[in-house]
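Minutes, structural biology subgroup

Action item carried over from last meeting: produce the structure token record for DUF2256 domain-containing protein (Methylobacterium komagatae). EB confirmed the sequence was re-checked against the source entry. Recorded below for completeness.
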Amino acid sequence: MPPMRRKGDLPTKICAQCGRPFTWRKKWERVWDEVRYCSDRCRSEAKRGGAKAQGE
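Output recorded by EB:
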């Protein structure tokens, strides 16, 4: 079993929709380079063409 990693040691990205940072998740292990949004909500808002939450 690999050694445990602390949450602070995981890679992070900035969400393309809301601008908030989010951390790596196990389910994104194989597609981490393609992940752009922190949640399903941000992904669906981006497809609808919603405004950024910070600019409202």
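Discussion: The radius of gyration is 13 Å.
Next step: EB to file the record with the rest of the batch.
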